Amino acid sequence: MIRTENLTRDFGGGRGLHGLSMHIPKGKIFGYIGPNGAGKTTTIKLLCSLYRPTAGRAFINGIEVTPANAGKIKAIVGYMPDNFGVYDQMSVWEYLDFFCAAYHIPVRQRESRIRSVLELTRSQQMIDYQVASLSKGMTQRIGMAKTLLHDPEVLILDEPASGLDPFARIEMRKTILRLRDLGKTIMLSSHILPELAGICDLIGILEKGRMLAFGTVDEVSKKVKENLKLTLILDSDSAPAKAICENFPGVQQLTATANELHFLFTGVRNSLPDLLNNLIRKDVRIMEMKEEHADLEQVFLSVTHQNS
Contact 2/73 with Cβ under 8 angstroms? Predict the structure, then answer.
């Protein structure tokens, strides 16, 4: 649904986006991660036909993002920037009706469309509220409703949970998941990494305009994780196994309970079978080996540190 080929926007002095190539399938949530200035917003503006690339190409649902196709792209993409304009003197109904007109939605269809997007964003009760009276969380939900008015196939959301309290972030996350269930393809830029880990099918880590890692959270974790937190569950006393593990390269912070071993492994992942073979040869019966998955924040720090 979203595809880029060597997409580049050069602002000079190393700033911009450099050689971005990625593919986001239909109906997936893609989390786009990077520090300020990494090039996330530049990518979004290129995909929305707000910038022209210096080199490379981008496609939305098979349509190349070019000035000639700008109208087609805007018809299938819903873009919600991190800061968007609101009109304090309007009611929510008037605000959404105004954007219905901007999207050229026929007058006879506007009421049903407005009520539909308010229901989807769980904002029905706000229909007669003055925009000036809305909290930050309410404003974000109305901004999402506005983005959905023309029923886009692709949603590009730039920091949708920025500045929200925990309850409002939960509501935003639920809305995003509902939209995925409706078949929307969603590109989600955010600094709130735990939020992304819980909802994203794919992630991309961007730094200094270059994609450092792309894939599922687990795929990216396996590529970059250096410190593995492991637990061995045994069917007998842990003392013999503890003695073996203590002498294996890369095993650190080893603790033992009656039938479990917990340790940090800093060696090469491919050497783990050797550790298990050593235990088995000594008649240690292993019921299970569990790996504690790295959270997205750890993955992000690992990737950016390795490439800094």
Answer: no
Angstrom CA distances, 3 to 15, 230, 298, stand at: 22, 37, 27
Residues 199 and 179 in one domain: yes
The span from the CA of 116 to the CA of 105, in Å, is: 14
Amino acid at site 60: I
CATH of the domain at 228: 3.30.70.100
Instruction: CATH number of the domain at 81, please.
Output: 3.40.50.300
Q: What is the mean pLDDT of the chain?
A: 89
Which residues constitute the domain of residue 300?
223-306
Q: How far apart are CA 287 and CA 277, in angstroms?
A: 14
Give whole-number Cα distances, 142 to 52, 124, 182, in Å: 29, 10, 19
Query: Tell me: the pLDDT tens digits for 254-268?
Result: 999 889 999 988 877
Whether residues 132 and 237 share a domain: the answer is no
Tally of structural domains, the chain: 2
- Which helix (H) or strand (E) segment is 112 a member of? helix 107-120
Secondary structure E strands in the chain: 2-12, 15-24, 29-33, 55-60, 63-64, 77-80, 154-158, 185-189, 202-207, 210-215, 228-234, 251-256, 260-265, 286-292
Mind listing the pLDDT tens digit for each residue in 220-254? 876 665 577 899 999 888 899 999 999 999 899 99
